[in-house]
Amino acid sequence: MTLRGSRPRKEGVNLEPPKRPYSLQMKPTTKKSRHFIYLKFRDTDTGKYLVAVSSGMTSKSAAANWADEQIKSGSVLLPGKRNMPFGEFVGDFWDFEKSEYIRGKLARGQQIGRSHAKTSAGYITRHVLPYFGERKLVSIRTVNIDRWMMGLLEKGDLSAKSISLVHAAFRTMPCEAHPARYGLAETDKASASARR
Length: 196
Known about the structure:
The chain is mainly alpha-helical.
């Protein structure tokens, strides 16, 4: 039965927009009238939310756009990517011509040079891929990164400053920046919170 003036519903058609894989939360800053929007990305395998991250935005629509960009660029690892080997995930991240990360920085008016991208790509190739290349993204945890850095230091080929530069190139890559936030290491949430 349909009411007069109403359209009949088609069977099997979902009229609701699809749910986004994150929730938005408004959190106050130290200034009374200013708020930032934080996001919790949802692991669609478990249904649980990951650690909240600041979008740096003050409006919900801008924060939602930011979150969608993060997902599109691969900064947030949705379940389909988490079992990918790190070497495959790296792809063109530091390729100046092809990298979505670099194009995004340049589009936002930020600076990044070709030599920086080339140097960072070299760090990843020489020092990160031999250790993490075959590892699945989901298996990379903060403790593994700490061990890798200690191994570089003990090897004696690099100074502490050089190791910091290698780590910075690695850390810039979305999957390492905050492993627990991006679904890599559910058990490392405390470490990620401590680094904020």
